[in-house]
């Protein structure tokens, strides 16, 4: 699948998730560990990144909290491994960005080898895992490593980095393979629809600490 067609497909999938509702009954929760009760930061957003071990679809995201007043959730696709802090990168595409929600249903398809970032923040902090360092998990029976990801601001991601340290906990629901079919036979029409809806859904509102 070409990069252009794939971006169109992802755009339509994001737009469709706004209208189509419920995720599949076979969704599995990614093991992201347990929250410590603490977190970071009023000035920055944290999360984790990992490499897809197989084809899969993210069908839902949520923050491990009972309620939120002010929050962000975001999924990014890197073109290369994020650099170690203090180096940063903007070599990624934001595939979904949501504000002031506790959870969201979506349909974001990834292929084996994709480098995926998950970010979240709510009411002054990103909830932290109760263990330090990288977190060993699995996806579809394959071992993966969740590594710390962040940037020194709030709102939509930019200047992302990785470093040794505790991961931010954002819950992820997924299904193996591609969920549903995306018609990419008319790329021009899909581009018009996808870009218009994504532009509507992913408007950036910069937050200040």
UniProtKB/TrEMBL annotation:
InterPro entries: Ice-binding_C. Residues 1-22 form the signal peptide. Keywords: Signal. Residues 184-205 form the Ice-binding protein C-terminal domain. The keyword Cell membrane does not apply. It holds the Pfam family PEP-CTERM. The keyword Repeat does not apply. It comes from the Bacteria. This is PEP-CTERM sorting domain-containing protein.
């Amino acid at each position: 699948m070409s990069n252009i067609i794939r971006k169109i497909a992802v755009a339509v999938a994001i737009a469709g998730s706004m209208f189509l509702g419920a995720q599949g009954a076979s969704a599995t929760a990614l093991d992201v560990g347990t929250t410590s009760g603490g977190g970071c930061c009023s000035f920055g957003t944290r999360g984790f990144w990992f490499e897809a071990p197989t084809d899969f679809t993210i069908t839902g995201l949520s923050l491990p909290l009972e309620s939120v007043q002010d929050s962000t959730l975001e999924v990014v696709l890197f073109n290369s491994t994020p650099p170690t802090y203090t180096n940063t990168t903007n070599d990624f595409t934001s595939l979904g960005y949501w504000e002031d929600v506790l959870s969201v249903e979506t349909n974001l398809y990834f292929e084996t080898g994709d480098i995926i970032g998950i970010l979240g923040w709510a009411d002054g902090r990103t909830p932290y895992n109760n263990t330090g360092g990288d977190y060993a998990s699995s996806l579809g029976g394959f071992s993966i490593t969740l590594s710390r990801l962040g940037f020194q601001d709030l709102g939509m991601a930019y200047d992302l980095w990785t470093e040794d340290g505790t991961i931010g906990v954002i819950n992820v629901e997924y299904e193996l393979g591609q969920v549903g079919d995306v018609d990419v036979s008319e790329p021009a029409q899909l581009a018009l629809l996808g870009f218009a809806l994504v532009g509507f859904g992913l408007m950036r509102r910069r937050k200040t600490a």
